[in-house]
Design goal:
With 155 residues, this protein is mainly α. It contains 6 helices and no strands. The radius of gyration is 16 Å and the shape is globular. The mean pLDDT is 84.
């Protein structure tokens, strides 16, 4: 399905961020006693910041049918397996594993945004480039945290 304009691009980005927020909110509830609580909260705050940023960029709400199709497209990209898949991948075994899991999801999202930007023209392409830049920045932060935790583990 072809994204028509910047508003639809931003709608997809917002849907992806909402999926991330729901996953991390559920993780806080399910893993309430786990060692990853602080890290989950930090990632959750970052995802909420992204959602606010993308909404602020002007994402509109398409008609119901179009919104369902776009939301389905977003669901295929980020956290497609939800909390169960994250747990299966060991995301909540340690803070390091959580950051690695989150980084992999961010990497996939940034790559998808880049694909969208490359395949589109005009405002939709521009919007996806901006979104990709935001996600790449988040990925960079996560990778820095992964490196710091890995160095600390080696010491």
């Amino acid at each position: 399905m072809q994204v028509r304009d910047a508003a639809e691009a931003l709608f997809i980005a917002c849907e992806m961020e909402k999926r991330a927020i729901r996953l991390y909110e559920r993780a806080l509830a399910v893993f309430a006693d786990g060692s990853c609580q602080e890290a989950i909260r930090a990632i959750l705050m970052e995802e909420k910041h992204h959602l606010a940023r993308f909404a602020e960029m002007g994402g509109g709400t398409p008609g119901f049918e179009r919104a369902q199709l776009l939301a389905g497209q977003a669901a295929e990209v980020l956290f497609s397996g939800g909390l169960v898949e994250a747990q299966r991948k060991g995301a909540f075994e340690s803070v390091l594993r959580l950051y690695e899991f989150a980084a992999e999801e961010e990497k996939q999202a940034a790559a998808r945004y880049e694909e969208y930007a490359d395949s589109l023209r005009g405002t939709a392409s521009t919007a996806f480039r901006q979104i990709q830049t935001e996600e790449t920045g988040h990925l960079k932060k996560l990778n820095e945290m992964i490196r710091a935790l890995s160095r600390n583990a080696e010491e």
